[in-house]
Amino acid sequence: MQKGAIRVQTENIFPIIKKFLYSDHDIFLRELVSNAVDASQKLKTLASVGEFKGEIGEADVTVSLDKEKKTITISDRGIGMTAEEVDKYINQVAFSGAEEFVKKYKGQGDGANIIGHFGLGFYSSFMVSSQVEIFTKSWKPDSQAVRWECDGSPEYQLENTEKESRGTDIVLHINEESEEFLDEHRIRTILEKFCRFLPVPIKFQGEQINNTSPAWVKKPSDLTAEDYQAFYKELYPFAEPPLFWIHLNVDYPFNLTGILYFPKITKTYEIQKDKISLYSNQVFVTDEVKNIVPEFLMLLHGVIDSPDIPLNVSRSYLQGDPNVKKINAHITKKVADKLDEMFRTDRKSFEEKWEHIALFVKYGMMTEDKFLDKAGKFHLLEDVDGGTFYTLEEYRTAASAVQTNKENKLVVLYATNPTQQDSYIAAAKAKGYKVVKMETMVDAGFINQMEHKWENVLFTRVDADIADNLINPDAATQSVLSEAQEGTLKDIFTGQVALPGVKVELKGLGAQDQPVIVTRGELMRRMKDMAAMGGSAASWYAGMPDEITMTVNANHPIYQRILGEGDSGLQQKQVRNLADLALLSQGLLTGADLTAFVNRSVELMEK
Ligand code: ADP
Ligand code: MG
């Protein structure tokens, strides 16, 4: 048997690190500025534990551009490096001085956060440079400054040099393919993207480009509502003020801070995903938080910062990362708890916000079962009259006496368009039923899923059947017409209403009910609504005819008169007009049929 250590050929591994580790070339600046920030933070830690006794002075990081010499220089006044340290941290690829430092000073000093982790970041500089120089002088008393140089081959030079001040200058000699980076605007854009909230001042062309203490790193107790609003404005200068926010602050079993803002959303077109930015120790990582934040919360805005989300790895890796999964679950819980608390402590203001948050509460209930469990307590059904809100339990209490069907299910009656469905709402209310609004884009899908997820609940739109049948579809009715009269009336109707998919039925409703009522069966209509939203079975259902029932109310006094009408032509026209009126109230009378109806009405009135 043989045992041993795997050997790496530097000549082969080097180009891989240089070219393929990072797909995005911009990040060289992120890496080098992060190292400079780390060096400055480390010095503060050494000072706070009493190891460094000198003057820290200004611990700024400066980025400068020399177009003539084709160089970008990143300078700091941090801990610097001795020759031995350069050999250890720079000449050894994938040996992280950051990690070593964090282990050594864990729990000591003021615990400044260190960004570095894998010991690979520095080498990203070779993606854009033909040569890199390091000028560095350690914080240690009487240190000799050193200069390191490398052209991207595995050979380097290390020699003594002169350097006045403590700290490090990294000089990048930009290669030919990367000259785009020798542009002020480009550098500024990259710095503003990645370094906007770094904890040490970053200067470019004499200006500080960052806010060193963004709201999310502060304690919630130190922040006022104005502070949160102001930070929102800093992130999204053109957005409307947020509805409310959640300040995340977790340190076990993983580290996570951040602020999630709830924007006002009522319309589909207002939805903007990818408005949450992911940071790691205040360094920007990505706007694509897909796997970290549950899908339904992607509608939120704000910042999440977690050093436990690895900065240097590819995004596909995130999916399988156990920390990422925990973070996802934690955020879901936090959001649910916050909504629950708002509901309990100030129900009125929660109700006022409901129209803006309904969309993603419903979406969350459909997609995350953990959220569904909690949301049951604060999800609201709004009465069509407006201003009255019920939780499901409250609705059950208020309506179960009259809205429980034979299968012992609570029938929730709803309207998708209260103005259009007004006559049906009126009919349902006359029976003492409670009708709620279901107007948002997710409602068709929501209703479908809740019928499965909630026990003993059924949803029925107010126009799905005549009011008598809304709760139990086959309520018996008594007609005042004789069987022969019913036959005659039905024949005239079927003769007049030869529309495909329309079924004519005779029922004995109340004398005060409408003479003809057109209803659209719940299931087929719902499928078609969902198809219109672009579900999977979209085209199939969209092509199906509507299931329309035309109920003729045999008890309406008008039929006594129509049956007694001697002129059969006139009789047919009257019946046709009654049918058209009912179709009209469902919005189903259009085009030539509508024109014919108008002409016929005028003609009948002339008689
Ligand atoms: P990481 O930051 O993940 O540790 P890097 O490749 O970015 O890896 O850097 C390797 C090491 O080089 C750092 O951990 C640090 O010890 C040292 N180093 C890099 N840049 C500086 C700097 N500006 N000042 C002091 N030390 C530095
Ligand atoms: Mg680094």
What would your notes on this structure say?
With 607 residues, the chain is an alpha+beta fold. 38% of the residues lie in helices and 18% in strands. The strands form five sheets. Strands 5-4-3-6-2-1-7-8 form an eight-stranded mixed beta sheet, covered by helices on one side. It has a five-stranded mixed beta sheet with strand order 9-10-13-11-12, with helices on both faces. Strands 17-16-18 form a three-stranded parallel beta sheet. Strand 1 and strand 2 form a beta hairpin. Helix 8 (322-345) packs parallel to helix 10 (369-375), helix 9 runs antiparallel to helix 10 and helix 9 crosses helix 13 (443-453). The longest helix has 24 residues, at 322-345. The radius of gyration is 36 Å and the shape is elongated. 36% of the residues are buried. The mean pLDDT is 88. The chain binds adenosine-5'-diphosphate and magnesium ion. Magnesium ion (MG) is lined by residues 31, 34-35, 116, 121.
